[in-house]
Amino acid sequence: MIKKPHKIKIKKPSKVHFTEPKPIFSNKEIIFRSGGRAKVFNISSKLQVFVLMWMLSIGIWSAYSYYLYNVSDEIISTKDKELDEARDALVDLMTDFVAVHRNVSSMFSEVNEEQLKDETELNRYKQQASVVEEKIRQITDNEDWVESKDIEKQVTVREALLQRDRALSERNELVNKISALEENVKKLEDSEIEILNQVEKISTKEMEKIKEALSEINKSMKNQNKYFNPLANSKKDSTGGKFEADIPSVENEELSKKMQEVFSLINDVAYYKEVMKSVPVGKPVWSYWLSSPFGKRSDPFNKKSAAHKGVDLASNKGNKIKTMAKGKVVRSEWNGGYGNYVEIDHGNGFKTKYAHLNKSYVEKGQYVEQGESIGEVGSSGRSTGPHLHYEVLFNGTPVDPMTFIKVQI
Q1: Which residues contact 279 (CB under 8 A, 6 or more apart)?
Q2: 100: burial class by Cβ within 10 Å (0-12, 13-18, 19+)?
Q3: Residue 153 falls in which region: left (phi positive, over 0), alpha (psi -120 to 50) or beta
Q4: Closest CA to 328 of 344, 342, 340
Q5: Residue partners of 320: CB distance under 8 A and separation at least 6
Q6: pLDDT value at position 247?
Q7: By CB atoms within 10 Å of each CB, which of 198, 202, 297, 324 scores lowest?
Q8: How many CA atoms lie within 13 A of 315 on its CB side?
Q9: Torsion of Cα atoms, 315 then 317 then 320 then 325, to 10°
């Protein structure tokens, strides 16, 4: 059996009532209960607006006052700080001026005013400085915040700093001068080394010429078993031997070494030159021709073979005869077949003889210098015509004079 469905009854909704919202500042009531009684206070809209505006005004005024207080305090602090800094700067400025003025015045006192280019400028500076210094004193006296003791103390410190700066400046200037001087010294040392190199080069050439001349002489004398050693045959009457120069000491090792080498070389050259003054090197007659050589020859008078101990240098009568080495005249006289005859001892074993002179200029015992004229070419004694018979002896043995004549130094 089929059951019938139940019917569902739907209730109709009840009506909803909406109330209109009241304004914010609507009339309000305040109820106070006390002792079983109630009191009602009505607050109108106007009163509410007035109270709100009054509270807002108080809040705004309080906030503004707080802001003004803080900002003003900060401004005042900043201004005070700036004022203090300005005062300190002014004090420092016054202090610096006084210190500089004193320092400059002390410098002027050290300088002779006549040495200054413009004395008027100096006087004007002093006057201006005095005026400014007087203004500083007035400020110091009138202002409580400026202490004279503090300024004087700072002036002393500033003066010390100025003196220090002046000393540092002078020191730096001195250091620069020393640096420039050291640079100049280095340049001079380089120049000295270059000069010493040139001197060494010249001295070496001179030494080579002397040694070459001695070598040629010794080659010729080898036939007579003779050898001249300039170091072993120095003059007996000389004093002290070789000259040794006092070489100054220098810090530059290169320069010191070069000086030692060059000075030693110069000493050797000077010594050899002094020895060679006693060696008859060169032509005794400027213009000549060899008419009879050294050694064996045919006698010009009897045509027999004879030993010729020298050479005959034909020349014009009256031509000057010069000695080629310094020495002492040991003979100046007539000597038979030699005619007018001169003999000179040069030391170191060397002697020279001059014969057939037309005239003699020297006397026995006289000292002569290298290149000095001792007589004239002639034909005195056993002679066929004007000529100079010239002999060179070493340790008593005649050697070929042409070797000595041809050698050049």
Answers
A1: 214, 217, 228, 325, 346, 348, 350, 404
A2: middle
A3: alpha
A4: 344
A5: 285, 286, 373, 375, 376, 377
A6: 63
A7: 198
A8: 22
A9: 50
Cα dihedral 164, 170, 175, 176 in deg (nearest 10) = 130
Q: What are phi and psi of 346, to 5 degrees?
A: -100, -5
Burial (0-12, 13-18, 19+ Cβ within 10 Å), 136: buried
Q: What is the mean pLDDT of each run of 10 residues along the chain (409 residues)?
A: 53 55 69 72 76 85 79 74 68 64 60 55 66 64 58 67 75 82 83 88 91 91 87 53 58 83 89 91 94 75 69 95 96 94 94 96 96 95 92 93 90
pLDDT of residue 251: 72
* Number of C-beta neighbours around residue 399 at 10 A: 24
Nearest to 324 by CA among 351, 348, 349: 351
Residue with tokens 């002390």: 106
**Rounded Cα–Cα distance for residues 305 and 53 (Å):** 168
The DSSP letter of residue 294 is S
Q: Taken in order 21, 24, 25, 27, is the CA torsion positive or negative?
A: positive
Query: From CA 155, how far away is CA 309, in angstroms rounded?
Result: 103
In the beta sheet, which residues pair with residue 297?
Answer: 306
Within a 10 A sphere around the Cβ of 252, how many other Cβ atoms? 15
- Phi then psi dihedrals of residue 246, to 5 deg: -85, 105
Cα 212 to Cα 161, 218, 219, 231: the distances in Å are 74, 10, 11, 15
- Pairwise CA distance, residues 143 & 135, whole Å: 12
Neighbouring C-beta atoms of residue 80, cutoff 10 Å: 10
- CA torsion 43-49-51-56 (nearest 10°) is 160
Total-model pTM: 0.53
CA dist., res. 215 & res. 222, Å (int): 10
Tokens 């060696």 correspond to 279
Please, what is the end-to-end C-alpha distance for the chain in angstroms? 175
Helix, strand, or coil (residue 162): helix
Q: Which residues pair with 311 in a beta bridge?
A: 390
- Quick check: 321 and 360 in contact, CB under 8 A? no
Q: What is the amino acid identity at position 217?
A: I
